[in-house]
Design brief:
The complex is a heterotrimer of chains A (about 280), B (about 325) and C (about 525).
Chain A: H1 2-12, H2 16-33, H3 35-38, H4 70-106, H5 108-122, H6 126-137, H7 141-168, H8 171-178, H9 183-219, H10 231-239, H11 246-274, H12 276-281
Chain B: H1 2-28, H2 34-39, H3 45-54, H4 61-73, E1 79-80, E2 85-86, H5 87-122, H6 127-141, H7 144-158, H8 174-208, H9 211-218, H10 223-252, H11 255-260, H12 266-275, H13 279-307
Antiparallel strand pairs in B: 1-2
Helix pairs in contact in B: 1-13, 5-6, 5-8, 5-10, 6-8, 7-8, 8-10, 9-10, 10-13, 12-13
Chain C: H1 2-24, E1 34-39, H2 54-60, E2 68-70, E3 76-78, E4 81-87, E5 92-97, H3 111-131, E6 134-141, E7 144-149, H4 156-163, H5 170-181, E8 191-197, E9 201-206, E10 220-225, H6 229-237, E11 243-244, H7 249-257, E12 261-263, E13 272-280, H8 290-299, H9 302-309, E14 315-316, H10 339-348, E15 356-361, H11 367-379, E16 382-387, H12 391-399, E17 405-413, H13 420-423, H14 442-451, H15 455-472, E18 476-482, E19 487-489, E20 493-494, E21 512-513
Parallel strand pairs in C: 1-10, 1-11, 15-16, 15-17
Antiparallel strand pairs in C: 2-3, 4-5, 5-7, 6-7, 8-9, 9-10, 11-19, 12-19, 13-17, 13-18, 14-18, 20-21
The chains are: A mainly alpha (about 280), B mainly alpha (about 325), C alpha+beta (about 525).
Chain lengths: ~280, ~325, ~525
């Protein structure tokens, strides 16, 4: 087992870029967990007389529109990014995969009902759905996770179902059933592992996506409640000052791009490593 | 195939019914007195009550629902109090804008994405692959409005090459339309191109190792033919499932881009409808957009069934 | 020889100077062209007088004129009513109207039209606020309106000719009704509305039959709506609009730096006061305690807020008036920023640090201001909860009998003529039930501001009211005044009259575009 894991890691990190993105994710994760240690200032401490300042030894990236330390706010912003990004995707993936697996495996009326429901949701534009849900439930972090998670369910369900459909007729699935394995066992042991790689690609892609979705929601005024630091809201704030203090909009934007990029590349690497056929080729 | 299409049509009807319930219920839960939110706080109590009644808000929910659905089926989508216009009129003037932008962006996404994806997969491990993959990843990681600000700042404000705002339909003034569309289409399709590239790449890589590609290769077919005839064609199947998502994203997700470029399209009116609690506008436009998306899904599914005959037998 | 050449040189210089002078002197208006004005809102109603508000009124100005305008000294001068004769002793006001003025729908503008328009105001909720002291009015001739009063109020002429002086076409009102009039702009103005789309904007074209000979100079005026300020900034920067209306202090700074022409005047009547009002229908709520309200007021660093949110154009005031105006009482102590005093007051009210929780309502666009105020309050020991429900919802709550408490931002003009927003019945800007306003003598005092016959009496009443509401009961915390509107132009638009006399006033008929 240990050897297997070591081999997996060797394959996973054989490409330097995957290692680098893993390190980037790790760095942001440390920022999120140990924010007070990583941030030089209190992210909520405002000083209106020192707003929109440039780079200085005291404020590494300058200050925002209320004179708060931008760097510290970016560090604290990683908390929201991780929390919303990962939890929303996990929620969506668990619900979506379960739905897709069941739907694809059983087919028939179960499939009909689940897929119609998914399609009904999918046919509503996701951002509009999320905005309407926020209008109903109000703004808060758990609400945002829920709303973004719900919006992403059909992606997973449909992808999963598509994958299940294409492997369902494979010999090894039939063999498992003939051997008398239960449906659950067949699904979990034989179908799920063969469907997992595109799901992982989509998951890592979706973490970035939900970080971006959070930013979009903030942009339209339905994101995180201020004064909580969130990159999306910061880009939105900085947008108003793009001519005055370009760093204000750019820096949180770069943080978003970096983290999302890291997740995406890491996901790609993970996918390559998970794919048994590719592993042989490497 | 005919039976399959009929079945899908029937399913679409059920979906639309579900959507109508969701669209109807969703707005009922938005807090606030819709009349005051819609018309502002300065209106008199009498006017408030008149509008409240004329919107049918004093009737039970089920009556309201069936009245609305009945009117919808007769082709009357209701009246928007915020815009002071019939919803039919509103949608008729906004839909072409959103569809034009959405379809062009979706086509750009698919064509460029599939092409880049195929190239990266074929040239796997080379500098081309690395460059394109990294670019695709960056594209996917960049918020569309962030790119919009940057592009407008560079191309409109600094260089003055392209207009920063507005939208003209291509058949009204073609040249103006193209100039106005370049920036929004770039912003809207950036994510799509990137995500197709990624999906196509992983899908291609999977296909390339499949037996029939190996067989084709071993039969001595030219590599070009193997790639485009076998690998690309078969890699498109998972891509198909994404196509409707893309179109949906381009239509509904355009709200931000529409706001930034001051384009009056469907995304913008739906956001306004939520903000101003415009019951009939939100219900009807959600339902209408869902209808269009369902139509797209239907087409995609038929194409899917055509590409992968196993699906038809379900 | 030398002398002659000197004289010659002098003559030459003089001649050159003379040649230059006419070129720089007053330019004659040029004809033609269309001015586009970027406008920071999607107006849902224009044209309907009762639903007023600065933005709709401003945007309908090219088409709809008023009975009177303000002059440079803040005095009301006749416009559609060319003469306004006031007889305060006999409680009578006579208006002599411009002759030969026609509405865009072809109907004549006359005394009967004025009476019909006033009746529309009265029928639609303006009766008590503006016609409370009006006994009757009638057309005394084709172009003469006589108004009988039952009591003199200083605001009478303003009410009749400005607040309710927006002369829409009564025929149009009859035709389209209450609902339709919101989107139908038919007046006597120099431009006719040709298109109105809530999401896009308003287009006006030249009114060929305008009553002033030779005007207007422009072919048309377009008002282009935008919702994101950055979008508006781009529209303006790329030259797609010549004027941008009502920009934020933040954008104003930037446009000024880029060399655009700032159109804004601090002496312009009715700047907007930004502040926070207290509302509580519940005696157990902290906000019902005077000390809490005072602690709240002491905790706000108003200068810092002003510098941040109105920098360059705002000024701090501790009362409902601009320093130097007739409403300003220099004896009001107010609550200058003092965190220690704030803590002490909070202690006095019986709340330790973090024990006093208040809800602050704000609109999403003012998120920054909310965060800044929250930060200041929490520093002295308040616990602040934010809520973004719209003003409409909160107002409904205030209007009901349910106990409801809040602090909320307000934006309101500060002239005595507009104080009914605060002290009218019902008040619009804050909740009536925080204290018993009747018992506190506030209603009585406000009434004296309105009805006093001499300027001295009115002054005394106003001074008393300022002390009562600020030092005595702390009904609200004024923060800073801003000219309600800062406009910018690219320098090509002349004689626009914007932000010169009154916030809603401009002169589309005289406006012209320098090519």
């Amino acid at each position: 087992m240990l050897q297997k894991a070591r081999k997996f890691c060797t394959v996973l990190f054989s490409r330097k870029i995957v290692l680098v993105s893993a390190l980037v994710i790790l760095f942001f994760a440390i920022c999120a967990i140990a924010s007070p240690l990583m941030a030089p200032c209190d992210p909520y401490e405002q000083d209106l007389s020192r707003r929109l300042e440039g780079v200085s030894s005291e404020h590494w990236l300058g200050t925002d529109q209320l004179g708060r330390d931008l760097y510290s706010r970016i560090v604290y912003g990683s908390r929201v990014a991780f929390m919303v990004g990962i939890l929303a995707v996990i929620a969506a993936a668990v619900m979506g995969c379960a739905i897709g697996l069941v739907s694809g495996y059983f087919g028939g009326w179960v499939d009909q009902v689940l897929m119609r429901l998914m399609e009904a949701q999918m046919s509503i534009p996701p951002l509009i759905l999320a905005l309407a849900l926020v209008a109903v439930f109000g703004r808060s972090i758990p609400m945002l996770i829920f709303v973004l998670g719900v919006s992403a369910i059909p992606n997973f369900a449909r992808m999963m179902r598509g994958q299940v459909l294409s492997v369902r007729e494979m010999d090894y699935v039939a063999a498992s059933r003939i051997r008398g394995n239960s449906n659950t066992a067949t699904m979990v042991r034989h179908i799920l592992p063969n469907c997992i790689s595109p799901i992982i690609v989509i998951m890592t892609q979706s973490i970035g996506g939900s970080i971006l979705a959070e930013a979009s929601m903030s942009f339209l005024g339905a994101g995180i409640v201020p004064p909580t630091a969130s990159w999306g809201a910061m880009v939105n704030d900085g947008y108003s000052y793009i001519y005055d203090a370009p760093l204000f909009a750019l820096a949180p934007g770069v943080a978003i791009i970096l983290l999302v990029l890291a997740f995406n590349i890491f996901g790609d690497g993970l996918r390559d490593a998970l794919d048994p056929r590719l592993r042989g080729a490497l | 195939m005919g039976r399959f299409i009929l079945k899908r049509l029937w399913q679409t009807l059920i979906i639309l019914l579900l959507v109508s319930v969701v669209a109807f219920m969703l707005i009922q839960f938005i807090p606030g007195d819709p009349v005051y939110v819609m018309l502002g706080e300065n209106i008199s109590k009498e006017y408030h009550d008149t509008v409240y009644e004329s919107m049918g808000l004093n009737q039970p929910l089920t009556t309201q629902y069936f009245n609305w659905l009945g009117n919808m089926l007769r082709g009357d989508m209701g009246y928007s109090y915020h815009f002071r216009k019939n919803v039919n009129q509103l949608i008729a003037s906004r839909l072409p804008v959103t569809l034009t932008l959405g379809i062009i962006s979706a086509v750009v996404s698919v064509v460029l994405g599939v092409f880049f994806g195929a190239v990266t997969a074929v040239k796997r491990g080379t500098a081309t692959d690395t460059t394109l993959t990294v670019l695709a990843n960056i594209g996917l990681a960049t918020p569309s409005f962030w790119i919009a600000v940057l592009l407008v700042y560079i191309f409109s404000v600094k260089l003055g090459w392209l207009p920063a705002v507005g939208f003209t339909l291509p058949w009204v003034n073609f040249q103006k339309s193209i100039r106005q569309m370049i920036l929004p289409v770039i912003c809207m399709s950036m994510g799509g191109v990137a995500s197709y590239t990624r999906q196509m790449r992983s899908s291609m890589l999977e296909v390339i190792h499949q037996d029939y590609v190996r067989t084709a290769r071993s039969k001595g077919l030219p590599e070009n033919k193997v790639i485009w005839r076998y690998a690309v064609k078969n890699s498109l199947i998972p891509i198909l499932t994404m196509a409707s998502t893309t179109l949906r994203g381009c239509i509904g997700g355009s709200a931000i881009i529409e706001t930034m470029f001051n384009i009056v399209g469907m995304g913008q009116i739906m956001v306004i409808a939520i903000n101003y609690c415009d019951y009939q506008l939100l219900q009807s436009s959600l339902f209408f957009m869902a209808g269009i998306t369902c139509l797209c899904n239907l087409i995609v599914d038929i194409a899917y069934a055509y590409a992968d005959p196993r699906i038809r037998l379900e | 020889m030398k002398a002659i050449s000197r004289i010659l040189a002098l003559v030459l210089v003089l001649a050159m100077a003379l040649a230059i002078v006419p070129a720089t002197a007053e330019e004659a208006p040029q004809r033609g062209g269309t001015v586009t004005i970027a406008f920071p809102a999607s107006l849902t109603n224009i044209g309907f007088p009762v639903a007023g508000g600065v933005q709709p009124l401003w945007a309908s100005k090219p088409a709809i004129e008023m009975l009177a305008r303000y002059d440079e000294n803040g005095q009301i001068k006749g416009w559609l009513a060319k003469e306004i004769l006031v007889d305060s002793d006999n409680l009578e006001v006579t208006l002599k109207l411009q002759e030969g003025v026609k509405y865009h729908d072809g109907t004549p503008f006359n005394a009967q039209a004025v009476c019909d328009v006033w009746q529309i105001y009265i029928d639609n909720g303006s009766a008590s606020a503006y016609f409370g002291n009006v006994d009757s009015f009638e057309a005394a001739g084709e172009y003469e309106v006589k108004v009988k009063l039952n009591e003199w109020r200083t605001s009478t002429v303003g009410n009749l000719c400005i607040e309710c002086g927006v002369m829409i076409s009564p025929t149009e009102f009859k035709r389209v009704g209450l609902e339709g009039i919101y989107g139908s702009v038919v007046g006597t103005g120099p431009f006719k509305m040709s298109r109105y789309d809530i999401a896009e904007g308003i287009e006006y074209v030249r009114n060929e039959d305008y009553w002033i000979e030779g005007q207007p100079y422009l072919d048309g005026i377009n008002i282009l709506f935008f919702t994101e300020e950055s979008t508006g900034e781009n529209i303006f920067n790329t030259g797609d609009a010549q004027v941008i209306f009502g920009v934020s202090a933040n954008l104003a700074r930037r446009l000024e730096r880029n060399g655009f022409e700032k159109i804004c005047n601090n002496a312009c009547i009715s700047p907007t006061m930004t502040g926070i009002y207290f509302a509580s229908g519940n005696q157990d709520d902290p906000i019902s305690k005077l000390e809490v309200r005072q602690a709240f007021s002491y905790a706000l660093d108003k200068q810092a807020l002003c510098d941040t949110f109105a920098s360059g154009v705002g000024f701090v005031s501790e009362q409902l008036a601009i320093p130097g105006s007739k409403e300003y009482n220099p004896d009001v102590k107010g609550y200058p920023y003092d965190p220690e005093k704030a803590k002490a007051k909070l202690q006095e009210a019986g709340y330790g640090p973090g024990e006093c929780t208040i809800t602050l309502y704000y609109q999403p666009v003012n998120e920054d201001m909310f965060v800044a105020v929250k930060g200041m309050l929490e520093k002295v020991g308040f616990n602040v909860v934010g809520d973004t429900r719209t003003g409409n919802v909160s107002r409904n709550m205030v209007g009901t009998t349910d106990p409801w408490t809040c602090c909320a931002f307000f934006w309101a003009p500060t002239t005595v003529e507009t104080w009914h927003l605060f002290f009218g019945n019902p008040p619009i800007v804050y909740a009536i039930n925080t204290i018993d306003m009747e018992a506190a003598g506030i209603f009585d005092c406000y009434n004296r501001c309105l009805t006093s016959k001499t300027a001295e009496e009115q002054k005394a009443a106003m001074m008393e009211l300022q002390v009562l509401c600020t030092d005595e009961y702390c009904l609200y915390t004024p923060m800073f005044d801003t000219p309600a509107l800062i406009n910018f132009s690219d320098g090509t638009v002349r004689d626009h009259g914007m932000a010169q006399t009154w916030v809603c006033e401009w002169t589309p008929e005289a406006m012209w575009l320098a090519q």
